[in-house]
Amino acid sequence: MHLLFVLAVITVSAVHGAVDSIKERFEAAVQAQRSGDLSTAIRAYREMLERDPRLTRARHLLGICELQAGNRGEGIRQLEAVRREDPSNRQVAYTLVSTYVASGMLQQAAKVVQLDLRGDESGAAYFMRGSLAMAEGHYDLAIRELEHARKLGKGLAGVTSQLGVAYCFTGRLDDALPVLESALQENPLDGNAAAFLGWIYKDRDRDSEAAALLERTVRARPEDQGALFLLAQLTQSRGQSAEALGMLEKVVALDPDHRAAHVLLARLYQKLRRTDDAARERSIIERLNADLQAAQPKAP
Questions:
Q1: Secondary structure string (H, E, C) spanning the chain
Q2: Is the whole-model pTM more than 0.90?
Q3: What is the reported pLDDT for 7?
Q4: Domains of the chain
């Protein structure tokens, strides 16, 4: 999942009572962060905190800035410090939960949800609880939380997309379809929404629409093997075997144990009279089948 609250637009008010130099540094740092000059912003926030470690707002924005710069560990460290200093700061809790979930730190996310967000009925809190439930595989719970989040938190970035994906995971494709279409209207660059919507279109034989969405997904995320495999299937079904072959070869390079890709590769190699390659793929399939069989529980 993307860091949903980290990249949101942050509204910052001036610090009342601060000396002019600190106030000016703070405003300059915020402006640099908004304009994308993250190194300048980080340096300015750090200089302020060296002078006065009690500037919680500066530490909060430093944590977010570190996350935006890809320094996830340092961002988490700064935000955890803010949470200790200001336990009532819900925005920090939301950002931490989102970051923990994106980092696979589900125990830490669950702890913040339990301690800070259990009774919070805001759209953002429902969103964070839904995101955690999704990551834990509790899809029905995730749907309930995300439906509340979507209703209450108009404009929350990513909530519509995540709800659509949750519907897909529970087989509720009729519900997922309009939600994912709405997600793409909200954010045409949403790769998850495009990939899952492309999958639904393919399932419903809306091949041209599926191909357009999957091509968009693969351009944005070249290593999305799921979208790449679906696009290869569509490409092969249109008789473009050579193009499909290249996609499938990339899929198995990304995931050597992708059995379905090896099966389709074997067929295409045989069709193209590349018999040695087809034989190699069949031997890989036999090995994968044997591995799968060996992993099955033994009969008593």
A1: CCCCCCCCCCCCCCCCCCCHHHHHHHHHHHHHHHHCCHHHHHHHHHHHHHHCCCCHHHHHHHHHHHHHCCCHHHHHHHHHHHHHHCCCCHHHHHHHHHHHHHCCCHHHHHHHHHHHHCCCCCHHHHHHHHHHHHHCCCHHHHHHHHHHHHHHCCCCCCHHHHHHHHHHHCCCHHHHHHHHHHHHHHCCCCHHHHHHHHHHHHHCCCHHHHHHHHHHHHHHCCCCHHHHHHHHHHHHHCCCHHHHHHHHHHHHHHCCCCHHHHHHHHHHHHHCCCHHHHHHHHHHHHHHHHHHHHHCCCCC
A2: no
A3: 39
A4: 1-66 (no CATH), 223-294 (1.25.40.10)
